[in-house]
Amino acid sequence: MICCALILISAASAAPYAAMVMDARSGKVLHSRNADTKLHPASLTKMMTLYVVFDAIQKGEITTETKVLISRKAAAEPPSKLGLKAGHSIQLKYLIRAAAVKSANDAATALGEAISGSEAAFARRMTRMAKAMGMSQTTFKNAHGLTESGHLSTARDMTLLGRHLFYDFPEYYNLFSRKSTSAGTKMVNNTNRRLLNAYRGADGIKTGYTRAAGYNLVASAERGNERVIATVFGGRSTAWRTNRIAELLDMGFDRSPTRVAVRKPKRPILMAENGSQSGAGKTIRTSGLITRSIRPRGRPVVAPAEDVLIAMKDGISDALAEVVVAQAASTATPPKESAEVAPKAVLTASLAGALLSPPPRPAKRNVPTPNAPEARDDQVVVTRMSTSGGRHWAINVGRFSSRHEAEKMLLQTALVELGTLDEALRKVVRSTKGFEANFVGLSEAKAELACRRLLAQNVDCLPLGPG
After folding, report:
1. Does the active-site annotation cover 149?
2. What is the mean pLDDT of residues 121-133?
């Protein structure tokens, strides 16, 4: 009787009904209905908006602290909205929170304009990302999801997108489970809090509603070793949508095996509009980068020196410039033409080039035995004074055949994972098997978090406990 009632309700709804249930671990479809029918996604669109923003942050195009100037177009978007004023500035992180939690349309438009210059250009980038992800039936025309001709997706495509959000950006996924958060100008409540409050294990992801779309939802929940993603399009009301998605999640857990091999989705490769692979973002350019190393060619063996400690200055480029100065001072006198230290802009460009190139490949290694004696290097170079005691954990990001490769890996890793490694010390340790690239001075929780985030980005990482 319940099943029949659901069918009758969906038939009465103005918007077509579609659904999909997937085992998030394997990607196996457990249930589908009209899953490939093109429909209006409404604010499910913001899942891709946020995915592209996360991707841009990871590529160095923008940071969460970047101040975004609000345009008249963004400020004029209809509700749901944060209430941003044209001409005002707000940090990117608050726009992300507003789009993810409150589903704010003005925040979504501002994010698109901040990344691509205009919402139209950003929507084209969203569509290219969708195609690269395998969302073959999806086309985006805007960043917020308000009804627009040609702005369409399917239950299958949105389920795939939800899975990619979970696996590709685990460091940001917790946003979708926040029942409320600060969006800079005010506290905002989650549009999905009814499901988050009522369904055990639910931790996201995104609601959507327009008159043309009906009540949509992509939801994910975890119980034990199982994780299920369910999508519904065309709900009649918020209550109906919540009840139906709960039934679909229950179905998913009933049909999912307790244990199954996790097969993470392959990260999409974003293509540029001209068809070439998209690499650097708008703030990183490959042209104009220096073509030769600023380090002296010769690195003669020197007597053991005291550890070099360099306090962090105003920014990462200042600290990196001091690292180069300190290293140059500890080696032989450079040639005359290299006597002057390269300006900060050149150093920044050099590091940008390093980020665009693949990281150095670590030498093969065995997992170190705890408390095993290890040969120590004659010189340690770190870049930050430790200011808090009790941090006895470290992480290892590879073993390399040369000190230069180890230092390069530490620099690159520090730039891409500044959030968790901001207070860590970078340390190169010479062992009998090569040069170990370590971050030291971490708490156990920070070490584990850093490794989870780095492993999610395919960076080798091994936490090292005290002792």
Report:
1. no
2. 97
The domain spans of the chain are 2-255, 355-464
Task: Return the CATH superfamily for domain 2-255.
Answer: DD-peptidase/beta-lactamase superfamily (3.40.710.10)
- The more confidently predicted of residues 233 and 307 is 233
Chain segment 287-301, per-residue pLDDT in tens: 334 444 444 445 444
**Cβ neighbours of 388 (radius 10 Å):** 8
Mean pLDDT of the chain: 80
Of the candidates 10, 46, 59, 141, the residue annotated as catalytic is 46
Give the tens place of pLDDT for each residue, 340-360: 333 333 334 444 444 444 445
Q: Give the confidence band of 431 by pLDDT, cuts at 50, 70, 90.
A: confident
Tell which residue, 80, 70, 98, has the closest CA to residue 42. 80
| Residue 454, helix vs strand vs coil | helix
Please tell me which residue in 10, 71, 80, 103 is annotated as part of the active site. 103
43 catalytically annotated: yes
Query: What tokens were used for 34?
Result: 């009209």
Q: How many CA atoms does the CB half-sphere of 251 hold within 13 Å?
A: 18
Which residue, 127, 132, 161, is CA-closest to 143?
Answer: 127
Shortest CA distance to 342 belongs to which of 355, 331, 356, 328?
A: 328
pLDDT above 90 covers what percent of the chain?
Answer: 57
Higher per-residue pLDDT: 353 or 160: 160
- Global confidence as pTM: 0.60
User: What span, in angstroms and rounded, lies between the C-alpha atoms of 30 and 32?
Assistant: 7
- The DSSP line for 42-93 is GGGHHHHHHHHHHHHHHTTS--TT-EEEPPHHHHTPPSS-----TT-EEEHH
Say whether 153 is catalytic.
no
Whether 414 and 316 have beta carbons less than 8 Å apart is answered as yes
| pLDDT for res 424 | 86
For residue 237, the one-letter residue type is S
Which one, of 13, 48, 18, 78, lies nearest residue 214 by Cα? 13
Answer yes or no: are the C-beta atoms of 75 and 84 closer than 8 Å: yes
pLDDT of residue 14: 62
DSSP secondary structure letter of residue 99: I
**Of 43, 80, 116, 256, which is the active-site residue?**
43
* 66 CB burial (10 A radius; 0-12, 13-18, 19+): middle
- Rounded to a whole number of angstroms, the distance between the first and last alpha carbons of the chain is 63
